[in-house]
Amino acid sequence: MTGLGEGNTEYGRKKFKRSRSHFTDRITVAGEDGWPVEAGRYRLVVSRACPWASRALISRRLLGLESALSLGVVDPIQDDRSWRFTLDPDERDPVLGIRFLHEAYDARETEYPGGVSVPAIVDVPTGVLVTNDYPQITLDLATEWTSLHRPGAPDLYPERLRDEIDEIAEEIFRDVNNGVYRAGFATDQDEYEAAYADVFHRLDRLSDRLAERRYLVGDHITEADIRLFTTLVRFDAVYHGHFKCNRNKLTEDPVLWAYTRDLYQTPGFGDTVDFDHIKQHYYRVHTGINPTGVVPAGPDLSGWTTPHHREELGGTPFAPGATPPGPPPAEETIV
Ligand SMILES: N[C@@H](CCC(=O)N[C@@H](CS)C(=O)NCC(=O)O)C(=O)O
């Protein structure tokens, strides 16, 4: 398996550097790292605000892994102890019994110096963090957890398309997923303008590509679409204003707007998205760029459910034999 190496990407010239994922153990069929695929053994911890965690949320839904891999959702607002289970009764994760995600990191490595990040997968019996390696997590859900997939689950990382998926995913990571962060956290003008140019250069190329085809690679949804969606769905709510990626809104690019709406309306995508968590997190946590912590009231979300007409391009969300997932479990439904 290739692994896309995103966590290792360094931007030597630029100030914003995404640090390497620290815990890269994999959960696999053969359990080479000591973590075999097993129903009910692991817990996926996410913030619904986080684009990197949202990849795992979408893959888990599309693959029907909800009962095999349980879900913990943290408060969108971190405090100085990082991610907290303050949304749960008694402010504790009901399965892991912990109040802060850092407790699982500490159980794995004492005095761990890095950030406590989501997504994280925790071993329930021991309470130990297994992995926070977000690019690998979704690839492993797609290719290693197959015995636990629902009937009709799609192949999100088909072998014959992997080179093409990897190539486009790398460009999307560099210029879009991470590009918006480089723009948003830039501390000088040149750094910001370079990142801004990268974001819109890549979005223009992707818009051209998606004018002719319904999905990024092949005729159906793949890992590549999941990776682009998680940034595009946040674009107008947080990246356009808060991260200053404001040449245009997503809603002003007819192709990308229809593409993102198409995915949003596909079961497994839109039902994972919590716009309130997204806005609360970005505008209240990043006080360096929004010192007042005031959260904007907009944008108007009513357009997300309007017809997209992308079916006219050919292609179907799922290959023949695959089906959409059913509704999310009641306790995971976003109100
Ligand atoms: N661990 C990832 C990143 C995932 C990530 O950045 N998650 C964010 C939320 S969107 C987070 O948990 N940040 C807290 C931190 O890293 O301290 C990496 O290697 O770059």
Automatic annotation (TrEMBL):
Q: Which organism is it from?
A: Streptomyces zhaozhouensis
**Keywords for this entry?**
Transferase
Provide the transmembrane region boundaries: none
InterPro entries this protein is in? Answer: Glutathione-S-Trfase_C-like, Glutathione-S-Trfase_C_sf, Glutathione_S-Trfase, GST_Omega-like_C, GST_Omega/GSH, Thioredoxin-like_sf
Q: Which residues form the active site?
A: 50, 181
Q: Pro residues bias located where?
A: 322-335
- Provide the residue span(s) of the region labelled Disordered: 304-335
GO MF entries: glutathione transferase activity
Recorded GO cellular component terms are: cytoplasm
Q: Which domain of life is it from?
A: Bacteria
What's the protein name? Putative glutathione S-transferase
Domain GST C-terminal, first and last residues per copy: 155-285
Binding site residues for glutathione: 83
Task: Name the residues annotated as site: Lowers pKa of active site Cys.
Answer: 239, 282
Checking Gene3D superfamilies in the record gives: 1.20.1050.10, Glutaredoxin
Quote the Pfam families the UniProt record gives.
Answer: GST_C_2 (PF13410)
